[in-house]
């Protein structure tokens, strides 16, 4: 997978965060390890408090689809938008 696509997605996420007053503490864009699938994780220190999970997920997904022209075989297989508190719980489950 080309690093340029990963960097372009990361830059688009940073732009989306700025536009929505989201203070991201972690942004990960990485290959899933299966084909051309990607995992994207955005953890926010501030800015997600008044959004439901569905609203923030859909907003970012729609923004990325409109902003980044990625190869047709490149699939976002996981897009997680979490508050720091949600991320801490998520890490506990993953362990």
Describe how the helices and strands are arranged.
Layout: H1 3-19, E1 23-31, E2 37-46, H2 53-67, E3 75-83, H3 84-94
Parallel strand pairs: 2-3
Antiparallel strand pairs: 1-2
Helix pairs in contact: 1-2
Written description of the protein model:
With 95 residues, the chain is α+β, with helices and mostly antiparallel strands. The chain has a single domain (3-94), classed as BolA-like (GMP Synthetase, Chain A, domain 3, 2-Layer Sandwich). It is 45% helix and 29% strand. It contains three helices and three strands; from the N terminus they run H-E-E-H-E-H. It has helices at residues 3-19, 53-67, 84-94; strands at 23-31, 37-46, 75-83. Strands 1-2-3 form a three-stranded mixed β-sheet. A hairpin with a 5-residue loop joins strand 1 and strand 2. Helix 1 packs across helix 2. The model has no long low-confidence stretch (mean pLDDT 89).
State the helix count: 3
Low-confidence stretches: none
Spatial strand order of the main sheet: 1-2-3
Query: Could you say what the CATH architecture is?
Result: 2-Layer Sandwich
Give the helix/strand class: alpha+beta
The level 1 CATH classification is Alpha Beta
Number of domains: 1
Please name the CATH topology: GMP Synthetase, Chain A, domain 3
